[in-house]
Write the structure tokens for this entry.
Amino acid sequence: MVNPSVPAKTVPEFIAYAKTNPRKLNMASSGTGTGGHIASELFKMMTGVDMVHVPYRGGGPAFNDLLGGQVQVMWAGTVGTIEYINAGRLRALAVTGATRMEALPDIPTVSESVPGYEATTWFGIGAPKATPDEIVEKLNKEINAVLADPKMKARLEEIGYSVLANSPSEFGKFIADETEKWAKVVRTANIKLD
């Protein structure tokens, strides 16, 4: 999302604007190495834009400065930001997931303009490695049942979450794939924690 002072209204317009104004856009994050930071670094790698990373000590101060125009762009989750987008105080150029969001159906995905781009914050439930398979399977079945409940699913989507219920082995593969993908971004962008 961008502060409305940024003239771009689409991802291609934003890329063009950033390329004609290298290092003039300040890109806020809630801190070095956070999800928003590495998602923006992936975008920079895939598009060749050059923005200045401005790490904050938390999302609140970064978000406030985005609203105030001290920084121009931020990769942030929709939970807690939808009201500002809907009120026109921030402009959502795209969502970073693989599909459009139910809560913001008119906002395209980044990958519609930058093929292959995907960055999501996800939550999962794990158990200690020695947990018996039958307990893991029972937990998985019960959790997936809750996530499939229409009221639960609707509420999660209303606040900006997408539900992905899968098996323990699918989740394990997902974690491995995500670890490999983001490790590459961290190495390429030379991200070091302070």
Q: What stands out?
A: The chain is about 45% helix and 5% strand.
